[in-house]
Amino acid sequence: MEFRYLHSISEISAQQWDSLVHSDYPFTRHAFLAALELSGSVAVATGWQPHHLCVYQAEQLVAVMPLYIKQHSYGEYIFDWSWAEAYQRHGYNYYPKLLAAIPFTPATGPRLCIHPDSDAAALYEAVGQQLIAQAQQLQASSVHVLYHSQANHFNAPFMARSSVQFHWFNQGYTCFDDFLAQFKSRKRKTLNKERRSVKQQGISLQRLSGNEISEEIWQQFYYFYQLTYAKRSGHGGYLKQDFFKRIASSMADQIMLVIARKDQDIVAGALNFFDSHSLYGRYWGCSEELEQLHFEACYYQGIEFCIERGLQRFDSGAQGEHKIQRGFQPVDTHSSHWLAQPDFAHAIQQFLQQETTELKRYKLQCSKHLPFKAT
């Protein structure tokens, strides 16, 4: 096998890259990764240095992996800040680190995309060894593969880590009321009350896809996006406006935008991506805080979209225990980690074992609070 590294996704054609993705999962598509880089949202200057891996056998491209040299841990959603602090306390540099992930996107999916005729097990073994060798060459502290599909993992010396998200699953529902029929009476009344509250405030909602989203609406949504990040984090968000312009053109068929209007003015928006089986909730913003609107725009409209399209799952993003009472179930997400310093690797392995035990308890407790009737 020959391993080559790209300083930009533009160094390979969309046709070559996408031929190995062989699914419509939106976030490993060339168009999505290119929009991040060409907009300047992902660059050396932002601490995300593209270092994409391409694997060749006899000059044939057999695998690709979105890969970055990171100078911080922002925008990842698998938190290793305490690891970095421990490194620093002991006089070691945690950054740079090598990261296989989709920037700013905590959505499970393929991270190593393999030609269907290739030996997947052999490729995972070879790529795992290569990532470690590359990290050593770069004098990076570690290698991290985030939010990979459970079947797609790296064996020892990589360490497995789990986390919990809340996803909605389509049980063959025919409409939203069919979904609510599975709720306990009190929980169903609470959710219906939330939806009525939005209507009573004179707010109307609309789901737009593809070319239905005008340039003016995109500009309004970007304003909401910046405003929300400014309130929460004190900055205008990771993504530049040009990123949204680019995906509006190149990925229109995989975008669904919920907009909320009050007195004909757009007051909020929730951006989603989708493929043939899942909806992925990504960004939300509003001009003013209106009662229950976040739940309606970010969750209930998405559920209705899934039911209409026959999508199997709604991945609404990281964190959010408030999703449980709205029918989102706790699920495991997976990542793999390798650290160069043996002492730290041993300590973190012990930490991960304890964390896994606690997560099992947490997941069980979350499940007890789901709103569904006993079966």
UniProtKB/TrEMBL annotation:
It comes from the Bacteria. PANTHER family: ACYL-COA (PTHR47017). This is GNAT family N-acetyltransferase. It comes from Dasania phycosphaerae.
